[in-house]
């Protein structure tokens, strides 16, 4: 008979590490999906996901059982992704010359007539991924959680460990940062 | 170029670009193997380290108290006071009103 999550967690805390495996199997798809929002390569996705599970195992005694295990695990995942972003900060300049032909073409069409540049175009997806990589870690995290994954502010605060006012301030700054990068990129093209 | 509109359109593109939730084959086995290879927490080492820290703190407190007491004793050291205290201590058990046999 399949054990419940609470039974599995209790078994792990009693020293039965093997009971952790069913939890990994069940929730890894969710962890991988979140990690793929922040990683640059597939190898990094697996590294991040592995780190999430190692931390989850170490900190399992901190899981109180008041909320579903998935919520607690997602908090560990988001914070691990944020640590990863901070450890891998790179040059944040995005120049028009960095873009490939499809992205340039999409931008040209948007510039001429926005309705001719669809948001489900592959070029648009590539362009936004490139743009997100150029944001600072807190900006990227808050934009991803708030604007892309559409979490409410309170949920973002819970996931990140930031206060609600801090989430709002960071969201404001993140949108400004995004606009600044796009403005500079547009200026590069027309100068 | 309308930057605000471009930003909105790109965020909509990001929303439409749902990430893949595919998990590599045998990922959970690799994680379990990593967990098994990590050294366990040594409880007695934790105790020893805690007790050492407590011992050092106690030694520091004793030293500070000793310095403080020593400093206070030297500043209030008056030979007349000492003699008076010494005499009173010695004669404390003798009742001055009792007749001497």
Task: Sum this structure up briefly.
The complex is a heterodimer of chains A (191) and B (101). Chain A is mainly α and 191 residues long.
What this model shows, in words?
The complex is a heterodimer of chains A (191) and B (101). With 191 residues, chain A is an all-alpha fold. Chain A is built from nine helices and no strands. By secondary structure, chain B is mostly helical. Chain B has a domain of 50 residues. Chain B is built from four helices and no strands. The radius of gyration of chain B is 39 Å and the shape is elongated. Chain B starts with a helix and ends in an 11-residue tail after the last helix. The interface between A and B is large, with 46 and 32 residues.
Question: Key features?
Answer:
heterodimer, A: 191 residues, mainly alpha, Rna Polymerase Sigma Factor, Chain: A, Arc Repressor Mutant, subunit A, 2 domains, 0% strand, elongated, B: 101 residues
Which residues of chain B sit in consecutive blocks of at least 5 with pLDDT less than 50?
Answer: none
Instruction: Specify the CATH homologous superfamily of the largest domain in chain A.
Output: Winged helix-like DNA-binding domain superfamily/Winged helix DNA-binding domain
- What is the CA-CA span between the terminal residues of chain A? 69 Å
Radius of gyration of chain A: 20 Å
Give me the CATH architecture of the largest domain in chain A, please. Orthogonal Bundle
Mean pLDDT level of chain A: 90
Largest sheet of chain B: none
Q: What is the tally of beta strands of chain B?
A: 0
Secondary-structure class of chain B: mainly alpha
């Amino acid at each position: 008979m399949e054990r419940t999550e609470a039974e599995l967690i209790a078994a792990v805390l009693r020293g039965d590490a093997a009971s952790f495996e069913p939890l990994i199997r069940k929730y890894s798809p969710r962890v991988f999906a979140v990690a793929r929002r922040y990683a640059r390569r597939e190898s990094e996705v697996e590294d991040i996901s592995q780190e999430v599970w190692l931390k989850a195992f170490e900190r399992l005694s901190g899981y109180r059982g008041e909320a579903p295990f998935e919520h607690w695990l997602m908090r560990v995942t988001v914070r691990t992704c944020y640590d990863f972003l901070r450890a891998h900060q790179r040059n944040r300049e995005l120049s028009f010359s960095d873009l490939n032909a499809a992205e340039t073409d999409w931008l040209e069409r948007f510039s001429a007539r926005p309705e001719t540049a669809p948001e489900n175009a592959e070029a648009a997806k590539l362009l936004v991924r490139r743009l997100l990589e150029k944001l600072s870690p807190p900006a990227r995290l808050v934009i991803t959680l708030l604007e892309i994954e559409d979490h409410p502010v309170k949920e973002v605060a819970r996931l990140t460990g930031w206060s609600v006012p801090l989430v709002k301030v960071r969201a404001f700054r993140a949108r400004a940062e995004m606009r600044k990068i796009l403005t500079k990129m547009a200026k590069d093209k027309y100068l | 170029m309308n930057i605000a509109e471009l930003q909105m359109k790109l965020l909509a593109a990001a929303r439409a670009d749902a990430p893949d939730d595919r998990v590599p084959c045998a990922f959970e086995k690799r994680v379990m193997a990593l967990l098994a290879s990590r050294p366990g927490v040594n409880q007695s080492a934790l105790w020893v380290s805690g007790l050492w820290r407590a011992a050092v703190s106690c030694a520091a407190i004793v030293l500070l108290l000793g310095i403080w007491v020593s400093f206070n004793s030297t500043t209030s050291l008056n030979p007349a006071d000492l003699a008076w205290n010494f005499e009173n201590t010695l004669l404390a058990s003798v009742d001055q009103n009792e007749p001497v046999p």
